[in-house]
Each structure stands twice: as structure tokens, then as C-alpha cells.
Design goal:
InterPro entries: AmpC-like, Beta-lactam-related, Beta-lactam/transpept-like. This protein is of the alpha+beta class. Helices cover about 30% and strands about 15% of the residues.
Length: about 425
């Protein structure tokens, strides 16, 4: 496993430094308070978009064509927003394709509510770092110190390792039953960690990097232990309410707030036949406790990342710690404390995250003053190149005659095919 990590991080360090310089320019937080943890006094994002450098008509056509291709390759519907922010203001493009409900043919709402899957993780990371900022916990505190007896080997695993996926803890979802077997079952976080304990570690803590949903189950449990309230409420107080993200919630039951995008899974078809998707919109999200529970819109997710990277959520020093890449995989992902760094084929350095749970595939990518969030209601094991092509079309300054990205151009994202959700 040693070949999979890179601890020098010179290039990604420059990316973090650039983000922190931006944060310093717009920082609104003052000195931190080590007492109680009221919601941070952060102004909500400006709801009124002002003319920015703009998104040209040609760019809008290219974006819509790219979104249409995403749907043609195994998604019932998709919605995306590109926001361009510069010194003049903010301009947005919002596109939809396909249908929200295959049964009724209802069109996709541009502000459809969506299970954002692992795009939930940066919300949890920001909440935990808010507690770090206030002196409630430290990134070098161990799991055993904070959650005694919960995780085997927890005395060697720190909060920093959890947030950066360098803990070596087994990802519990890889050993869970298919979600369709009991979709409304409510899972307790202790049950999820117990699955990881039974499987044991996949490497020594701090020696490698591997994506594990168990890390964020534990992070959410730490938030609950420190604040004395459900982690869902802590995220609301630290992130959602201060930023005015009124279309974002963290449900603990099977319902999705409307207008909702339906989710589908397709069983293996008979030879020569197309797969027949089954509606699986309504399932209990606690099987992804702390890792993939958030429901949001493309606009709210973009606003969250704009505020996070722009220094309106965490202080300059805390943001710098969040964006310090801890390890880089062979396929080019830099794992920081929540966000991931990556370099697109056009050379643009971006911060991003992606998500994948049954029926849903999600992406959020940010760089060069551009912010793209894409939601797919995906029901087959279609490849990710159409989504990557959409990302490059949206963020790269010149798309021109370059061919669409191929599977070898980008990291291979885990793809859900059993109902478990390999990514979360």
C-alpha cells in the first residue's frame, strides 16, 4: 500500500494556500470563544445574483448538451448548477434533463431535493472543525479519548485521520445487507461501527489512505458526544442556519422533502432487454449515519462551498488546517479534512467531493471562481465519463476541440451495484 500515498504534497499545498488567501480577503469571523457553542455569527449568503463576468450563450448550450448526455447513459433525470463568481458579482446557470418521476413523467425541478450522498461529509467536517476552532476538541485527540470502547484500536486513531480517510478503519457499508432487503430499518451508529470492528483495520493508522464511511460515522458520534445534542442539530446550528441554507436538511426517516427527485435501481435484465428500474426513493438514511444523510439542492450545495472556501464559515487558520492535504492517491485525489483536491485535464486545480448511494450519484467541484454541483438519479452501472465531461465543460476555461475525458483520464469512482453503496 505504500505506493498509493504521497506525503510531500507540494502542489496541493499551493492549492490550499490559494484558498486561504481568498478566505483572508473575505473573512468575517473574529476571535473564537472556548465556552459554549452557539451558532457562529456568519451572515447568510447574498440571495441576489449580480452580473458577473457571465456564462456565455455558447457555454450554456454546451452545458445543457453535456447534461443531456449524462441522462442518456443510465440516469432517469439530472439537475446541475454552475455559479461563476468574480469581483463584479455572481452569475448562474441551472439546467435539468430527463424526468423526476418515471411513473408520471414529471419534469425535473431546477431546485429538486436530492439525497446528496457523500457530499454530506464536508458538512460534517465543517461542523467538527467549528468545534476545534472553539477549543472543544483537538484534531490530534484520539477516538478512544472521545468515545471510549467504541472503536477497536481507537487509541491510535485521531480526528485528523478520520476526516482525511487515513485511519485504516474498514468501511462498514462494504459488509452491509442490500438496502432493498429492509429499506426502512433504522440503524444505530454503534451497529455500523461494530461491523467495522468485526472486519478489522485495512492498514496501520496514518500509513496510507483509503475511503471509509466508518470515519464519518465516528466523526458524527464525536460531535454528539462533545455538543450533547444530535449531530444533525449541531450541523444545523454550525452550518445550515448561519448560511441560510433553507432547502438543506438531514432527515432520519424515509421521507425526502419535496420537490424530490425519485431514485431507481435496475435489476440485471434478460439478454437483449433494457434493465427495468425499480423506485427506491424512500429508504431510511440512518444506514449512512454521518456519511450520506443530507438532502439538499444544487444551489444550496454551491452556496455552502462558496461560503466554506471563501472564509465565511471557518476562520482563516481553521480553513488552512481543513485544506491541508494529508495524503494523495495514485489516481490524483488529495485527501484533506473533508474536501478533496484534484487537477482537471486542463490543468485547473479544484476542490471537490462526490457521492454514490443507491439511485443517486452526486458531484460538487470548485475552482477558478467557478462552482459546479451535479445530481444524477442514476439506475445503472454507467461509467462516469459523461459526468467528468460535464465538469470539464463547466470549469475549464477552454474546452475547445479537446475530446471528452476517457475513463483513464480521471479517478475511477466507486459505483453502487448491490444496493450497498460503495461510496456513500
Amino acid at each position: 500500500m505504500e505506493s498509493r500515498k504521497n506525503w510531500a504534497l507540494l502542489a496541493t499545498g499551493a492549492l490550499a494556500a490559494a484558498a486561504v488567501i481568498t478566505a483572508a480577503q473575505v473573512l468575517v469571523l473574529g476571535a473564537t470563544d472556548r465556552a459554549a457553542d452557539p451558532a457562529p455569527a456568519v451572515p447568510a449568503a447574498d440571495d441576489g445574483d449580480r452580473p458577473a463576468a457571465g456564462i456565455s450563450a455558447d457555454k450554456q448550450i454546451a452545458l445543457q448538451q453535456a447534461l443531456n448526455r449524462v441522462v442518456r447513459q443510465g440516469s432517469s433525470g439530472a439537475v446541475a448548477e454552475l455559479a461563476v463568481v468574480d469581483e463584479q458579482g455572481r452569475d448562474t446557470w441551472n439546467g435539468v434533463a430527463g424526468v423526476a418521476d418515471r411513473a408520471t413523467g414529471a419534469p425535473v425541478d431546477p431546485q429538486a431535493h436530492f439525497r446528496v450522498a457523500s457530499l454530506s461529509k464536508p458538512f460534517v467536517a465543517a461542523t467538527l472543525l467549528h468545534l476545534v476552532e472553539r477549543g472543544r476538541v483537538d484534531l490530534d485527540d484520539t477516538v478512544e479519548e472521545l468515545l471510549p470502547g467504541v472503536l477497536d484500536g481507537g487509541e491510535r486513531i485521531t480526528l485528523r485521520m478520520l476526516l482525511s480517510h487515513t485511519s485504516g478503519v474498514f468501511s462498514y457499508n462494504r459488509a452491509m445487507p442490500d438496502v432493498r432487503e429492509d429499506p426502512h430499518r433504522r440503524w444505530r451508529p454503534q451497529e455500523l461501527v461494530a461491523i467495522a470492528n468485526r472486519r478489522g483495520p485495512v492498514f496501520e493508522p496514518g500509513t496510507d489512505v483509503e475511503y471509509s464511511n466508518t470515519n464519518y460515522v465516528l466523526a458524527a458520534m464525536v460531535i454528539e458526544k462533545v455538543t450533547g445534542r444530535p449531530y444533525t442539530e449541531a450541523v444545523d446550528r454550525a452550518v445550515l442556519t448561519p448560511l441560510g441554507l433553507e432547502d438543506t436538511s438531514i432527515p432520519t426517516d424515509s421521507e425526502v422533502p419535496g420537490p424530490a427527485m425519485h431514485a431507481y435501481l435496475a435489476a440485471a435484465p434478460a439478454p437483449g432487454l433494457a434493465p427495468e428500474p425499480t423506485d427506491i426513493t424512500h429508504f431510511n438514511p440512518t444506514r449512512w449515519y454521518g456519511t450520506a444523510q443530507v438532502v439538499s439542492t444544487v444551489s444550496d450545495v454551491n452556496r455552502f462551498w462558496e461560503a466554506l472556501l471563501g472564509g465565511r464559515l471557518l476562520s482563516k487558520p481553521t480553513l488552512a488546517r481543513m485544506l491541508e492535504v494529508q495524503a494523495v492517491t495514485d489516481d490524483g485525489y488529495g485527501f484533506a479534512l473533508g474536501p478533496r483536491s484534484y487537477t482537471l485535464t486542463c490543468g485547473l486545480d479544484v476542490w471537490m467531493h462526490s457521492g454514490n448511494i443507491p439511485g443517486y450519484r452526486t458531484w460538487t467541484v470548485h475552482g477558478g471562481g467557478r462552482h459546479l454541483t451535479l445530481f444524477q438519479a442514476r439506475y445503472t452501472k454507467d461509467p462516469d465519463p459523461p459526468a467528468w465531461a460535464m465538469i470539464e465543460t463547466a470549469l475549464c476555461p477552454v474546452h475547445g476541440d479537446r475530446p471528452a475525458p476517457t475513463p483513464g483520464d480521471h479517478p475511477t469512482e466507486p459505483v453502487e451495484d448491490t444496493g450497498r453503496g460503495e461510496d456513500g
